[in-house]
């Protein structure tokens, strides 16, 4: 449970320079958030592709979030170690400086971390399905949470969801499509907008996604754009 966690009272109180020391003084804040990031595969795949974009994973499990923190710390060291053959520190010296993680219950505290319209991408990859209907309110996409997602996402920003559970896929589609501030956006459109590398990472980079692949399961993708003017 989250009683023992200390949450920032507002995003303004967060010192992002402890998360992203190389970006201290730039005024930058996270623009990508991976909700329930698990072992961090998505952000670690995306970090080198968007080296100037700050990214934050949120994970509720203590050991898992600690693992991701250690993983990022190790990657930062390795990536900045000079190449033995040349003795040069390569351009990779800044790799992984743009990725970090917090242990947090994202269902309760998202607006404590992100200011209004600060995110360009919000990821929900292979979220826990909570199969039984009395557990549906525990789902990470629920009617009450959509307003919060719309608040932290900037107009034009994208919610990416993927799951191997067809029923959960339909549930997320129904709720997101039914919310006036989101409109469905298909994979081809995202690719035509240059978001192909993000879509590819959504499909293949996470630990859960790889498990689904090993087991020969299906993957259902559904993406939504945060629009400026509510749909009628
Ligand atoms: N996205 C990762 C992936 O694709 O490999 C992990 C998927 S795993 C099935 C779901 C993760 O969400 C778990 O690591 C779980 O601890 C985390 N989680 C569940 N509820 C959460 C919440 N309210 N806030 C943050 N993380 C949560």
Topology:
Blueprint: E1 32-35, H1 41-46, E2 55-59, H2 62-80, E3 99-103, H3 106-113, E4 119-125, H4 143-152, E5 153-163, H5 166-177, E6 182-185, H6 187-192, H7 196-204, H8 207-214, E7 220-226
Bound molecules: S-adenosylmethionine (SAM).
- Going across the biggest sheet, name each strand in turn: 3-2-1-4-5-7-6
Q: Approximately what portion of the residues adopt beta-strand conformation?
A: 15-25%
Oligomer status: single chain
Q: Major sheet, described briefly?
A: 7 strands, mixed
Q: What are the bound molecules? A: S-adenosylmethionine
* CATH architecture group name: 3-Layer(aba) Sandwich
Mean pLDDT: 91
Radius of gyration: 18 Å
CATH class reads Alpha Beta
Runs in which pLDDT lies below 50 for 5 or more consecutive residues are 89-93
Q: What's the structural domain tally?
A: 1
Summing up helix and strand content along with how strands pair, one would put the structural category as alpha/beta
Number of strands: 7
Order of helices and strands: EHEHEHEHEHEHHHE
**Fraction of residues in H or I helices:** 25-40%
Question: Helix segment count?
Answer: 8
Terminus-to-terminus distance: 39 Å
Q: Given the C-alpha coordinates, what overall shape results?
A: globular
The H-level CATH homologous superfamily, spelled out, is: Vaccinia Virus protein VP39
